[in-house]
Amino acid sequence: MAWLYLVLAGLFEIGWAIGLKYSEGFSRLWPGVATVAAMAVSVVLLALAAKTLPIGTAYAVWTGIGAIGAVILGIVLFGDPATPLRLACVGLILLGVVGLKLVGGAS
């Protein structure tokens, strides 16, 4: 169950990262509210996962999921650059996340 919480926390991490862009520095009310809500859900789910998983693994996987998702959605939604080197770096983050899952500890 801890890994499910962690993956969901990572997805909400993506949501609030993208929400920061849509909220335009919290100058837009509803995108700002949604961003803060996603932040809260993400941190609560991370805390639940960290009850069982090693904190280093949980935190690294959480931020890795968020980073990968933010980069991909930045490319898709906002036209961020998708250079081969940038995508290779995302691939390295993905390898790290998968590696931590494979050797990650409890649950």
**Structural class by secondary-structure content:** mainly alpha
The radius of gyration computed from the alpha-carbon positions, rounded to a whole number of angstroms, is 15 Å
- pLDDT averaged residue by residue: 95
The shape is flat
- H/E topology pattern: HHHH
- Whole-number total of structural domains: 1
Number of helices: 4
Can you summarize the main beta sheet? none
Q: What is the first-to-last residue Cα distance?
A: 7 Å
Approximately what portion of the residues adopt beta-strand conformation? Answer: under 5%
Q: How many E-type strands?
A: 0
Helix content: over 70%
Walk me through the structure.
- The protein is mainly α and 107 residues long.
- It has one domain.
- 82% of the residues lie in helices and 0% in strands.
- The protein has four helices and no strands.
Quickly list its features.
107 residues, mainly alpha, 4 helices, flat, Small_multidrug_res, EmrE-like, transmembrane transporter activity, Guanidinium exporter
